[in-house]
Design a protein that fits this description.
Length: about 400
């Protein structure tokens, strides 16, 4: 373990007191505007770390420090408290240390701070619990995240004519990767420290300190736009998706109006009803059916055209305008299924209760505000314009990931 100054020889002692997690999320990101709430794999970026922090159970409170109302709303939707930082620590030049110190001055009860970076979406609750133990029980005053890298470093050439020199290797005896342990680098995922270190030492890394080595696949940091697509693939494969394991999906439920259609209805001068369906969405539903997943369509109104389309797609249809939970639970009992086996995509307030209960949940980009707050997968597309197929692909990917993780544990 890496350690700090001569205090490292001090005997370990438990550290007590209020333990708070804080995520710094300023609204004025220069690289990516409002980066902290930009959707990553269908979830606001900050949501990934908030979900991990809250589900870890390691903290007495979880906070987001921000200067932006939209970030505050997202934080509260995920169950975090909001600390509205002052203008003095909301500038481009303000440091993380200054921002955390301001938070501690306003919250004298807090004795330990877990500073978690919003830009590290592959953080898992288990990592947080282990680090909390290192501070609570092992007596470390500071623990920070590192990742192991196998990269050879060379000196930088400052002037023309200079030669570069190796920093961490002998070019005549270049080691094979399997023969070299590599080096530890801060990955920026988190910095945990006691109040004493932050306020008295005026530092985030001091006193009796050590590191926590994260798995390479969990070591993801987003700084600029070019990182985004890579991070999205990593988080879909290695991210933390919630307490309950995704084991199987037997039923896929889709609200027709606003999800399978764009919510518009056309009438001829003879009173005939016309509705447009996106064939890409229909193809997505066929993929589910090929996997043996039952597809159920929900309609808010008794429409013959919806019934006809459901018949063509080989789907069952339910009609319910308000109490969709009661209606769907009747179907679940009939099929001997549970909510843990349901994937649900909806877009209106009448869908919120079902979205809350479903194991995998999705909403189109243009869903109502209440539906967007359900910590669902937020599609990049609007309803009727490919959102259903996008959510289908997400569900199938989640099942594939769960299967791969399960097989790894049994090896």
């Amino acid at each position: 373990m890496a350690t700090g100054n001569d205090q490292t020889t001090a005997a370990c002692s438990t550290i007590k007191g209020h333990f708070a997690a804080i995520v710094l999320a300023r609204g004025g990101s220069k690289g990516i505007p409002l980066k902290n709430i930009k959707e990553l794999a269908g979830v606001p970026l900050i949501g990934w770390v908030l979900r991990a922090a809250i589900d870890s159970g390691a903290f007495d409170s979880v906070w987001v420090s921000t200067d932006h109302s939209e970030i505050a709303k997202v934080a509260e939707n995920f169950g975090a408290s909001v600390h509205y930082r002052s203008p003095e620590v909301s500038t481009d030049n303000a440091s993380s240390l200054e921002t955390i110190q301001e938070f501690l001055r306003k919250h004298p009860e807090v004795q330990i701070v877990g500073n978690i970076q919003a830009t590290s979406p592959c953080l898992h609750p288990e990592d947080i619990r282990k680090v909390a133990k290192m501070i609570r029980e092992d007596g470390y005053e500071c623990v920070f995240a590192v990742a192991r890298q196998h990269k050879f470093r060379w000196s930088e050439i400052e002037q023309q004519g200079e030669e570069t020199k190796p920093f961490n290797l002998n070019p005549y005896k270049r080691p094979r990767r399997q023969d070299w342990k590599g080096e530890l680098y801060e990955n920026g995922s988190f910095y945990f420290a006691t109040r004493r270190i932050i306020m008295e030492e005026n530092c985030l890394q001091a006193g009796r300190m050590t590191y926590y080595e994260m798995k390479p696949e969990h070591s993801v940091d987003i700084d600029v736009d070019i990182d985004w697509p890579v991070a999205e693939q990593r988080v879909l494969r290695y991210g933390y998706f919630g307490k309950e394991k995704i084991e199987e999906v037997k039923l896929f439920v889709c609200s027709i109006d606003g999800c399978l259609t764009n919510g518009q209805m056309y009438l001829s001068n003879k009173g005939e009803e016309f509705v447009a369906y996106n064939m890409k969405d229909c193809e997505g539903i066929k993929r589910l059916q090929k996997q043996g997943i039952i597809v159920l369509l929900f309609s808010c109104r008794d429409s013959e055209i919806h019934k006809l389309q459901a018949h063509k797609m080989g789907c069952k249809i339910l009609v319910s305008s308000e109490d969709k939970v009661h209606t769907l639970e009747g179907k679940l009992n009939e099929e001997k299924l549970t909510w843990k086996q349901v994937a649900y995509i909806g877009n209106e307030e009448s869908d919120v209760a079902c979205l809350t209960k479903a194991r995998i949940k999705g909403v189109p980009k243009d869903a109502c505000a209440e539906a967007l707050k359900t910590s669902s997968y937020i599609c990049k597309n609007n309803g009727g314009y490919g959102a259903v197929r996008e959510f289908v692909e997400y569900v199938l990917l989640m099942l594939q990931v769960a299967k791969a993780q399960s097989s790894q544990k049994t090896v």
